[in-house]
């Protein structure tokens, strides 16, 4: 019998460096530093952990919780929805817990099909929640929604959970039985 142990490698050095890159003043400077950081890790053969995004988000939520992190604009110049790093972190954690609780009981590696408009803030939160829970995030634009397309996508992707809004619930309900509604 072979026993395998998997341990999460520390991403703290990468998070620290990435945090410093994000704090750089100009966009060009940030891009240059980020490219250098990623090139260095690629040359050393180090894989950047899939948890890196969540680690960086958590650090920002602790160190600068009130800093605005996400702006969703319904039309040009309209910043109607703003979320802070703390908001994003808390909401994505709640969603990740919802996915893995007894009612939905999703486990790492299972697929979540998200049928929401591209500009919905929930898409970002669901992506982060899927990363936290180890789930496969599969976005789908409702503009291309058809009964056949949804059924085929659910079957081909072995979808375990479908998430949509009230506007698209009826067409999604038929092939998926019990979609999660946002």
UniProtKB/TrEMBL annotation:
<dbReference type="GO" id="GO:0006633">
    <property type="term" value="P:fatty acid biosynthetic process"/>
</dbReference>
<dbReference type="GO" id="GO:0006637">
    <property type="term" value="P:acyl-CoA metabolic process"/>
</dbReference>
<dbReference type="GO" id="GO:0004321">
    <property type="term" value="F:fatty-acyl-CoA synthase activity"/>
</dbReference>
<protein>
    <recommendedName>
        <fullName>medium-chain acyl-CoA ligase</fullName>
        <ecNumber>6.2.1.2</ecNumber>
    </recommendedName>
</protein>
<dbReference type="Pfam" id="PF00501">
    <property type="entry name" value="AMP-binding"/>
</dbReference>
<dbReference type="GO" id="GO:0031956">
    <property type="term" value="F:medium-chain fatty acid-CoA ligase activity"/>
</dbReference>
<dbReference type="InterPro" id="IPR042099">
    <property type="entry name" value="ANL_N_sf"/>
</dbReference>
<keyword id="KW-0547">Nucleotide-binding</keyword>
<dbReference type="InterPro" id="IPR000873">
    <property type="entry name" value="AMP-dep_synth/lig_dom"/>
</dbReference>
<keyword id="KW-0067">ATP-binding</keyword>
<keyword id="KW-0436">Ligase</keyword>
<dbReference type="GO" id="GO:0005524">
    <property type="term" value="F:ATP binding"/>
</dbReference>
<dbReference type="InterPro" id="IPR051087">
    <property type="entry name" value="Mitochondrial_ACSM"/>
</dbReference>
<comment type="similarity">
    <text>Belongs to the ATP-dependent AMP-binding enzyme family.</text>
</comment>
<feature type="domain" description="AMP-dependent synthetase/ligase">
    <location>
        <begin position="57"/>
        <end position="168"/>
    </location>
</feature>
């Amino acid at each position: 019998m072979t026993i395998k142990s998997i341990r999460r490698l520390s991403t703290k050095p990468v998070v620290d460096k990435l945090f410093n890159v994000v704090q750089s003043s100009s966009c060009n400077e940030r891009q240059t530093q980020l490219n250098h950081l990623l090139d260095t890790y690629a040359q050393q053969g180090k894989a950047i952990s899939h948890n890196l995004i969540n680690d960086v988000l958590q650090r920002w939520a602790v160190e600068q919780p009130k800093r605005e992190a996400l702006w969703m604009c319904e039309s040009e110049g309209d910043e109607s929805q703003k979320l802070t790093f703390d908001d994003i972190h808390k909401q994505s954690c709640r969603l990740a817990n919802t996915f893995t609780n007894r009612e939905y009981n999703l486990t790492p590696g299972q697929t979540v099909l998200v049928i929401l408009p591209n500009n919905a803030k929930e898409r970002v939160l669901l992506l982060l929640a899927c990363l936290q829970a180890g789930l496969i995030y599969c976005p789908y634009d409702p503009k291309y929604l058809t009964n056949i397309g949804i059924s085929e996508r659910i079957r081909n992707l072995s979808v375990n959970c479908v998430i949509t809004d009230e506007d698209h619930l009826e067409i999604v309900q038929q092939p998926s039985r019990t979609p999660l509604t946002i």
